[in-house]
Amino acid sequence: MNPNTLSSREILLDIGAMRQLAKGLVGQGKPYDRLLVLLLEKDYYEDDDEPIPSMKELSEKLSLSYEKVRKQIKQIYDDLVFPEGEELPSFSIKNVKYIIYVHSLQKSMVFELDNLPVLPRVGEQFEVPFFHAYLGFRDFFVKSITHRIVDDCQEISISLKYGYYNLYWHYRRDKAWEEQELGIQELANLDDYELRRRLGVGR
């Protein structure tokens, strides 16, 4: 790999997203051992309060030149993503976390589950009785499902919206997006009532 083609900042983010895998490289006699231990001290990938360390900061803490630190960062990345003798990188997902986002008229709620025996599909109904007093609704539908891999965990985010799924309205919103009838901010921030009014649906 050409060491000059990749951004050091982006590589640091990638390394931060593979903390558990990166820990397996510590103590292997690699020249970057001190640097890797330093990078693993804080979870700058997940913790928004932890800034990504700068090249200058790393150079000063390790008493190494900028170029040497940059080279070692590339070596860490190569060993994680392009391990020697293997055609493809191999990762192990050990945990699954479900993050449920529930949206009512003016309020929202987020909660996590460590187990969900059956994964719902977009459009299916989803009853959430736990927060009825706060949200004012029990009946929701699955608006979207997003999968994300962080380190050794698969995060599945499920967005629920109050009411019942409407296949035509789902199509109409997508059509408005595709044909640029409304801007992205309008589609993202306006409620369905206002969007229907703007698009002339249900007149």
What does the model show?
The protein has 203 residues and is α+β, with helices and mostly antiparallel strands. 37% of the residues lie in helices and 20% in strands. The chain contains 9 helices and 5 strands, in the order H-H-H-H-H-E-E-E-H-E-E-H-H-H. It has a 5-stranded mixed beta sheet, with no helix packed on it. Strand 1 (95-103) and strand 2 form a beta hairpin. Helix 1 (8-16) packs across helix 5 and helix 4 crosses helix 5. The chain starts with 7 loop residues before the first helix and ends with a helix.
Topology:
Blueprint: H1 8-16, H2 19-23, H3 33-39, H4 55-62, H5 66-81, E1 95-103, E2 108-113, E3 125-127, H6 132-135, E4 139-150, E5 153-162, H7 167-178, H8 184-189, H9 192-199
Parallel strand pairs: 1-5
Antiparallel strand pairs: 1-2, 3-4, 4-5
Based on the model shown, name its key terms.
203 residues; alpha+beta; 5-stranded mixed sheet; 9 helices; 37% helix
Shape annotation: elongated
Radius of gyration: 23 Å
Distance between the termini: 59 Å
Sheet with the most strands, sense and barrel status: 5 strands, mixed
The neighbouring-strand order within the major sheet is: 2-1-5-4-3
How are helices and strands ordered from N to C?
HHHHHEEEHEEHHH
Per DSSP E runs of 2 or more residues, the count of β-strands stands at 5
Average pLDDT metric:
88
> What is the number of helices?
9
Q: Helices and strands: which structural class?
A: alpha+beta
Proportion of residues in β-strands: 15-25%
Helix content: 25-40%
Low-confidence stretches: none
